[in-house]
Amino acid sequence: MPAPARTSTEAVVTAARGIVERDGLDALTMQRVADEVGVRAPSLYKRVRDRADLVRLVADQVAYELADRLDAVVGSGDPHDDLRAVAGAFREFARANPASYTLLFDPRSGGMSPEARDTSVSVLLRVATDLAGPDDGLSAARLVTAWATGFVAMELAGAFQLGGDVESAWAYAVEHLVAAVAGDGAET
Amino acid sequence: MPAPARTSTEAVVTAARGIVERDGLDALTMQRVADEVGVRAPSLYKRVRDRADLVRLVADQVAYELADRLDAVVGSGDPHDDLRAVAGAFREFARANPASYTLLFDPRSGGMSPEARDTSVSVLLRVATDLAGPDDGLSAARLVTAWATGFVAMELAGAFQLGGDVESAWAYAVEHLVAAVAGDGAET
DNA sequence: ACCTGAACACCGTTCAAGT
DNA sequence: ACCTGAACACCGTTCAAGT
What we know:
The structure is a homodimer.
Chain A: H1 9-23, H2 30-37, H3 51-73, H4 79-96, H5 98-104, H6 114-132, H7 137-156, H8 166-182
Helix pairs in contact in A: 1-2, 1-3, 3-4, 3-5, 3-6, 4-5, 4-6, 4-7, 4-8, 6-7, 7-8
The structure holds a DNA duplex.
């Protein structure tokens, strides 16, 4: 009557994330996760409700990790530099974890949980508020977040194919956004 | 020996798009497409290579349609107003075709073909060049495209949950982007 | 030349049975 | 309390056989 737990939810999620990162979301199979954690597929249903639930757990793990990275690069004292740093860290994270990153903003994966989402955007909200003031902070954060999200998504999807230098497009955008957000807010 | 073609590639793609729009990409099943066009599933392989190919064809159809919509709203004479109009039309299209729209920017769907992509961004490139000048046109177009893509993706995913008014965040962004892009280009 | 039934390998998921 | 084999319904895809 013991019941030796041969794996754990954490091991299952970590294995799943590794599979997604290495071979893409379509390769995330219950069978394959089971193989990696050393168990039979049906046993996974003691850890996660179903495959969609597992995908969501992976997205959450990635979201918290991204939030940590963003948190780590702010604090220069100058909100202009903080915004540049956050944008850079965001892009770096996406490049280092392309498949996991797309999972975060893929509507088809159910996205991340609300708490994970709040955590990952709170840093940017703080920096944007420092820069744009309390009235425009939220709108400014949404502008920058939407831009960074879209830019990186397009970059990962190979959408920048009209030639030109992607690096200079990035630099152009960062500087113009910093200036636009920091400038006095057009019409209140 | 005739061989009465009981369907067509166009009918297959249209049926597929309808399914995606009504019930999501996961509901796009070869069986279900076959049912809708009145044929057995194996016959679909005379029209498309495989399911992934079918998804790409749907994405292409949607991309061309989006390009048409954007094309239709420019020409006010004022590039500022054109940019506002294009952004608005972009958002409207996404709201009217949420599932098809996400298909366009979903890396997992293989995205659209290069020609479809070029067509859909050419309008924005033209407007951005009018506004930012030939040197910065491409970077400006990429800034606006990335922002609009990201904003709409987040909106469709229900990512704006920190309260505040999403409409005012949209308006704030449009005005600040128009001003930032039209202003003399920071450092050349 | 297109259509079909039958078949294959592979999914996610359930469940009764083991320990 | 967790694990397992067996089973179910459902995929995408291939292919020989029809017309």
